[in-house]
Structures are given as C-alpha cells and as structure tokens.
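Suppose you are handed only these lines of text.
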Amino acid sequence: MMNPIQMVDLKSQYLRIKPEVDAAIQHVLDSTAFIQGSPVREFEEQLAQYTKSKYVVSCGNGTDALMVSLMALGIGPEDEVITVPFTFVASAEAIALLGAKPVFVDVCEETFTMDASLLEAAITPKTKAIIPVHLYGQCADMEPILDIAKKHNIKVIEDACQAIGTPYTFSNGTTKQAGALGDVGCLSFFPSKNLGCYGDGGAMVTDDETLAERMRAICRHGSKVKYHHDYVGVNSRLDTLQAAILQVKLQHLDEYITKRRAAADYYFEALKEVDWLQLPEIITNTHHTFHQFTIRVKNGKRDSLRQYLSEKGIPTMIYYPVTVHLQPVYRSLGYQEGDFTVSEHLCKEVLSLPMHTELADDQLQYICETIVNCPL
Ligand SMILES: *Cc1c(COP(=O)(O)O)cnc(C)c1O
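From them, the structure of the protein bound to pyridoxal-5'-phosphate can be written out as follows.
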C-alpha cells in the first residue's frame, strides 16, 4: 500500500537517522551547555568547509541572517537595497526593518530568479546592496549580478535560504557554492529547508574576516567581549541543540540533495509531454538542488488542478500567491499592479509539487499519473 503523500515528510527522514540525532541531543542535555555550547562552533566550522568559505556565523534564523548582514554592512535609513518581488517576504522585510528602502527588479520568466538585465536601471546613488534570491534551490545568475555590483561598488548579499549546497560555475570555470558567491550568503535551517533543524536556525557565510567579526558581534548584542558593547546589536543565536542536530544532518546533506534530484528527474521525465504544463528550466551553470519542484500551469488551470490533486490525496503549495510589492504592508513604497509583470504572472501560474527526501517511486508514479490523466 502506498503511504499517504505529504508535501514534506520530516518524520520519515528523522526515523532514518534517529539513533544519531537522539544521541546528539542527549549529549547536549547531559552537558547543559544550551547556549553557545561546543556543537555551535563545530557546526560553523563544518559548514564553512561544506560551503568552501572562510567564515560561518550562525544565528537564530534566516531572516535574522539577512537583517544582521545588512546591519553589518551599515545599511539603514536613506539607503536603498535591491531585491526581487517574487520571493518569501523575509528578503524585503529585513531591508524594511532597518528603515532602508526595498527596491524591486523583476525575475526571469524561465528561472524565477533576478533578471540581471534589469538591474542596472534600478541602481541609484542610494543603492547600497543587492539581495538576489536563489529561489527553489537554483542560483540566480550571479556572474552578471556580481559584475554590475562591482562596477557600482555595491555589496551583494545572497538570500541562499533555499539553496544550500547548490553549486554555481563562473565563465572562467570556477565553481562555488550558493552563499559563498557574494559578499555574504544567508542560510536558513527552518525544518523544511534542504538542511533543516528541529526549530529555527540560520547562518551567514563570508570570506571577509572584518565582516564576519562584525556579524558575530551584532548577533551578541553588539559585543565582542562580554558586557562591552561596540554596536547596537540583537540577540540571535543558534541553539546548541539545533547545532547538534545540524551536525548530524549536514553529514547527510549530499545524500538528501541526491534524493531531491532523483525525485525531480522523475517529474521531468513523467511530465514532459503535458503541454499545458511548463516544467522548471535549469540554467546550465548551476546545478539545482530542488528545495521546491515548481511547475507552471498554463491556461488558467492552476487552481482547478490544485483542487483536483487535493481531492486525489496529493498536496501542493503555491509559493508565492502574491508578490511582495503588492503586499499591503509594502503599499507605501508606491508600487502598483503591472510594475513587475513577470512576477505577477508567475503568482497566478506556479504550483509546487510534493518534494522531499522520502518520496517513494509509487508515490511519484501516482502523482504524475494523476496529473497526466487529469481531465482539465
Ligand atoms: C525561509 C526563507 C527565509 C527566512 O528564513 P527563516 O529561517 O524562516 O527566517 C528567507 N528567504 C527565503 C527565500 C526563504 O525561503
């Protein structure tokens, strides 16, 4: 009998590594070093190795990673930061929280990531940083983005919350990891992310020592030496328990990515003939890690397909139903419908299919057969 299909199956994933995880948790309980215990530094070092970057500063969550990166770069009121409107709200929220202005550029229709050809027109003398988002596990096309940023002396903060482990290859043949491409990379360990902990968690990745020190200090109330404060900071830490769980799960990350890619390959093969669907397009210089497998449903059939699949026991999600520039909270920025037509259009067509490390072949077969035979 086929197991019920879930959008994400954290329970089965946990059961596969239960002895390792339980032992790591017990070890922390025995030590009672719940804040900044040794697993935190150890995990940071292991993650630096994994991402092939010099410094990793862990923090409370991915949103804090974005905010603290901006703080460490000195961004505040009067500054502008460019990002995309087709993303999770946190990418823009971090900018707004600091009193800076989120400025949007549209995404590419095929890849759902920042359209670098639109970037230069959005740059003003106030632009201090660019936050490209590696949406669904695929890197934005970073080479042109980094070139433009360099030309204008602007910092690049990658929102790599959905893309840990995604490689990106530059035209000179160098390959780097998502998060290690720009000045700072932000990661989230929210449970459903490709490397998820069992609560909230996040990290910033950089090769810049000064920036790393500053980000670390900001996460600890702006303090490098306890009770001596150099900056206005925040309290944002990765719990020792979460770090210990992440140490275990990081060792399985490559295997998790392989499983996601295998599920994606199944979808690509089984759905390629469906002419009212558009499958995700992969840019050749990045190797997608499929945080989401997001299709586009043509001819206005998205919502009816979603309803039909739901009736057949197949959950799906819409990431994201409304662009950030049209959210009520950002109305004061003065954007309106029609300003970012690609993003707005994608919101009406995208549908994310079940995607996780535990999808069985009979489940994938059932999902694909149900879509192919759907009477819409
Ligand atoms: C998950 C996510 C975040 C925020 O991460 P949290 O850990 O939930 O704060 C930011 N940006 C994107 C694109 C994300 O997917």
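What can we learn from it? The chain has two domains: 10-249, 253-372. The chain has a mean pLDDT of 97.
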